[in-house]
Amino acid sequence: MNTTPENTTVPLRAAVAALPAYVPGARVAPGSGAWKLSSNENPYPPLESVREVIARAAAEVNRYPDMFATELVGAIAEHVGLAPANVVVGTGSVSVLGHVLQSVVEPGDEVVYAWRSFEAYPIYAAIAGATSVTVPVTADGRHDLAAMAAAVTPRTKAVLVCTPNNPTGPAVHSGELATFLAAVPREVLVVIDEAYLEFVRDADVPDAVALLREYPNIVVLRTFSKAYGLAGLRIGYALAPTALATGIRSASTPFGVSGIAQQAALASLAPAAQAELMERVDALVAERTRVAGALRDQGWRLPETQANFVWLGLGDVTTDRAKEAMEAGILVRPFAGDGMRVSIGEPEANDAFLKLAATWR
């Protein structure tokens, strides 16, 4: 008879034992017909040109990939206007964040970030041995950058700025970020997490790459998961000063990014693919505008989302409402006690959610 080993005589690190669980978006059961609006995924399938590249790359999975993703790093560098030495790729921007913190944080250091923000932040801060210092977002879901600057102490090693903010949606503005950067000591790393950059239509947002050229203590995170529709291949990247990028690269998992992921991302950066992908992003932004407008017409007060999701501040009834949504065949992402994040999906999925949301008013 098979048995399951459960107990161990080897204690976990205290920081690991105390980690909050990362809660992924609920998955659609095969054949259920449910709409998945829980994971901020791009509802469009990969481009045909990218699928063809994936199929060809699959024939070589018996070989290790290029450990440094040389060709892709060069293409990203050209795309953003930096040198290849300033680019580090990894298995999604969240994994790259972990390598960033491992590169600079010592046990006992502090990491400052807004809350509620991306739920991986407390996990990776703790794994790096840091103490999390959280600063509440404002009533309209924005980063309070003045309060975050005030939270910086001599023990602070990094500050994480998620823009647009996941899960509330607003992006930080140029003036407030400039004031913030001027107030933060140069030895404190500022991570600008731009996972949803391509969905931003607010004209008053900073140029993170330009800031990276100006400030020696900035790292920018971006991903191919959202706008590029490659979430299942897990590939993202950091843009950093050369010396920081070298350290991040050293902390990264060897051969971490698969050859398939590298080739798919490279194909997605081709000019024709870029144009087609941005047409899809424009369509999702139009759907975002439609959904947000319809919700406001129903009487909802929403943060100004610049991402591919909307946020409903439901408070104590969040879990109940998420259960009702699941029963109606709509999977959303609840954050118990705070609110519900709803991804922008297919128009039919968005219509189904709007119909349900109207019954909650």
From TrEMBL:
The modification N6-(pyridoxal phosphate)lysine is found at K226. Its cofactor is pyridoxal 5'-phosphate. Coiled coil: none annotated. GO terms for molecular function: aromatic-amino-acid transaminase activity; histidinol-phosphate transaminase activity; pyridoxal phosphate binding. Signal peptide: none annotated. It catalyses: an aromatic L-alpha-amino acid + 2-oxoglutarate = an aromatic oxo-acid + L-glutamate. Residues 36-350 form the Aminotransferase class I/classII large domain. It comes from the Bacteria. Its EC number is 2.6.1.57. GO terms for biological process: L-histidine biosynthetic process. Keywords: Aminotransferase, Pyridoxal phosphate, Transferase. The keyword Transferase applies. InterPro entries: Aminotrans_II_pyridoxalP_BS, Aminotransferase_I/II_large, ArAT, HisP_aminotrans, HistidinolP_aminotransfase, PyrdxlP-dep_Trfase, PyrdxlP-dep_Trfase_major, PyrdxlP-dep_Trfase_small. Aminotransferase that catalyzes the conversion of aromatic amino acids and 2-oxoglutarate into corresponding aromatic oxo acids and L-glutamate. Homodimer. Belongs to the class-II pyridoxal-phosphate-dependent aminotransferase family. NCBIfam families: hisC, PRK03321.1. This is Aromatic amino acid aminotransferase. The gene is pat.
